[in-house]
Amino acid sequence: MIILAIESSCDETSAAVLQDGKILSNVIATQAIHQKYGGVVPELASRAHQQQIIPVVEKSLTDAQVTKSELNAIAFTRGPGLLGALLVGTSFAKAMALGLSIPLIDVHHMQAHILAHFIDDPQPKFPFLCLTVSGGHTQIVKVTDHLSMEIIGQTQDDAVGEAFDKTAKLLNLPYPGGPLIDKYAQTGDPLRFAFPLVEMPGYDYSFSGIKTAFMYFLKKETTKEEAFIHENMADICASIQHTLVQILLRKLKKAAKETGIREIAIAGGVSANSGLRKSLQEEGKKLDWNVYIPKFEYCTDNAAMIAMAAYYKALKGHFCGQDVSALPRMSW
After folding, report:
1. 317 annotated among ligand-binding-site residues
2. Does 323 belong to an annotated binding site?
3. Is 301 annotated as a binding residue?
4. Any known ligand binding at 273?
5. Is 182 marked as a binding-site residue?
6. Alpha carbon 185 to chain centroid distance?
7. Which pLDDT score is estimated for 35?
8. CATH superfamily of 2-114+299-315
9. What is the pLDDT of residue 34?
10. For Fe cation, which residues are the binding ones (predicted)?
11. Does 63 appear as a known binding residue?
């Protein structure tokens, strides 16, 4: 079984080829144009996908040494994501599948992030808990099978990735700011400044309050000292990152304790954050968890994870028809 997978949910155009559960290629084209706007501009993202999708797909096939005639199915991200961006990938996949007379496989973007853990060894054992963290999502998911997942906790407002990017913007750091906060944090004191640890019922999260608190903190300190941010950048970044990571892990630890599950994974773009990766490993040692952290190349949006999710759907015969449409707010 050879599957071509396409990812176009936000600002990365990606294509991958999978054969019998093994990734043969994974090509990603990023969109630098959004940097000067301080965030992703949906219309520009969809235009960039239109420009990049053909060369990205061609390179993925070339790298995998696979021809179009050898493909057995084409997979694509159906949602969630930006509507215009999703439409480019969905339309391309449908047209290519129609032209080759092969079936389509629609994939849920966030479920694919979780299934990225099955690209390489070691792989988590079922059941496991996965903290999925990105610019648009923050969830604790109970995974009992490749295709059986349940959200047991999630953010009630903003995602943690947005919190990283918005706090970075308040610090006048360029987009995307999350990785820059992580970079500065590595030389700072994480306990220098204290920020509120917002508590929500159950396993749910909230990040809107900490963004507001951070904004007022900066306003107060820069009023007293104009150069405050410049002179304390490392400590500020380390402190806000420490707080966000602690918020994430407190609920994850609660979920692990109450469910009795010790197989713990993270996924999504924010799982590339070094502070989160290090803290999760430390907690894992303390609590006797088996911790699974994806390779950096599979943390951010990529088609390899779409291919892996499609593979497990294909094994169960879960294909879709040509009448399928993009769903920017696709449910589970």
Report:
1. no
2. no
3. yes
4. yes
5. yes
6. 21
7. 79
8. ATPase, nucleotide binding domain (3.30.420.40)
9. 83
10. 109, 113, 301
11. no
Q: Is 113 annotated as a binding residue?
A: yes
Q: How far is CA 303 from CA 115, 140, 228, 329, in A?
A: 12, 22, 42, 19
Q: How far apart are the first and last CA of the chain?
A: 26
**Opening angle at CA 27, ends 169 and 34, nearest 5:** 25
CA 96/CA 150 separation, integer angstroms = 32
Q: What is the average per-residue pLDDT within 199-215?
A: 95
Domain at 122-294: CATH code = 3.30.420.40
Domain boundaries, the chain: 2-114+299-315, 122-294
DSSP character string of 100-161: HT--EEEEEHHHHHHHGGGSSSS-PPSSEEEEEE-SS-EEEEEEEETTEEEEEEEBSS--HH
Residue 39 counted as an annotated binding residue:
no
Is 153 flagged in the annotation as binding?
no
pLDDT of 188:
98
146 is in an annotated binding site: no
Residue 72 labelled as part of a binding site: no
How many other C-beta atoms can be found within 10 angstroms of the C-beta atom of residue 294?
Answer: 23
pLDDT tens for 108-131 read 999 999 999 999 999 999 999 999
Contact present, 302 and 26 (Cβ < 8 Å)? yes
- Is 101 annotated as contributing to ligand binding? no
